[in-house]
Design a protein that fits this description.
Elements: H1 7-15, E1 21-23, H2 24-31, H3 35-43, E2 49-52, E3 55-59, H4 60-71
Antiparallel strand pairs: 1-3, 2-3
Helix pairs in contact: 2-3
């Protein structure tokens, strides 16, 4: 189970524009997957990411497009 992410933060993420970059743990919480699963998805290219400084961020717009493609 991922670290606790507040319901307010999850709501904030859903309201962010497609240009936003969010933490891997936030996306893991949205999908209710463990951090090991989250990092596997990053490594396998399922979640498009960029490196910002020393952190890895998920590109929210690309993530949303992949989610829509997967649901079709």
């Amino acid at each position: 189970m991922p670290k606790k992410v507040s319901p307010e933060r999850l709501h904030e993420i859903q309201e962010l524009p497609n240009e936003a970059r969010v933490r891997v743990r936030d996306i893991a919480a949205l999908e209710d997957v463990s951090m090991s699963t989250a990092w596997r998805r990053v490594r396998d290219g399922h979640w498009p990411v960029v490196r910002v400084g020393g952190t890895t961020r998920v590109l929210l717009g690309a993530y949303r497009r992949k989610q829509q493609e997967g649901s079709e």
